[in-house]
Amino acid sequence: MEIAIRNLGPGDIDWLVDRHAELYARDEGFDATFPVLVREVLETYAKDHDPQTDRAFIAWRGAQRLGSVFCVRRDAETAQLRLFLLVPEARGLGLGKRLLSDCMAHARARGFARMVLWTHESHRAACALYRRFGWRLVRSEPKRSFGTDVVEQGWEVDL
Prior knowledge:
This protein is of the alpha+beta class and about 160 residues long. It has a domain at about 5-110: Gcn5-related N-acetyltransferase (GNAT) (Aminopeptidase). It has helices at about 10-30, 35-50, 95-110, 125-130, and strands spanning about 5, 55-60, 65-75, 80-85, 115-120, 135-145, 150-159. It has a seven-stranded mixed beta sheet with strand order 1-2-3-4-5-7-6, with helices on both faces. A hairpin with a 2-residue loop joins strand 6 (about 135-145) and strand 7 (about 150-159). The longest helix has 17 residues, at about 10-30. The termini are far apart.
C-alpha cells in the first residue's frame, strides 16, 4: 500500500503526543514531562504556525499514521526540524529518508539558508541519517532531562 504524506489534520496532535509518550518511555526511559513538552510544541504550532514557511509532514498508509516531521521557521534564515518520529513498524521502509528529504526540500523552497535540530545521542539511526544528508553535529552535552540522563545534541545543515 502506498504511503501518503499529509499536513497536520484532525487527531494528529493527540496521536503524536501519545506515540511520543509511549515510544520514548519504552525506548529512552523518559518520564511524563516529555509528552507535556510534545503537546506544548504541537499546540503552539497549530495556533501560531505560518503556512507560508512552516509545514507538518504526517505519513499515512491507509488509515494508519506512520510518522512525522515538522519544518518550523526559527528566523529569516533558519528553519528548525522538529518532531521527527517513525513508529517501529515503519522503520526500514525508507520513510525516514523520504520525510527528511521532503522537510529539507520544503525549507529550501521557502528560501531558508540553513536548518537546525535538537536531538539525543541515543537516536543513532536518526543521527546517521542526518549525517548522510549533510547535517553537522555542532553541540553535544550531557544533561538530565525527562527523568533520565541524556546527551543532548544540536545539528545543522546548510541548504
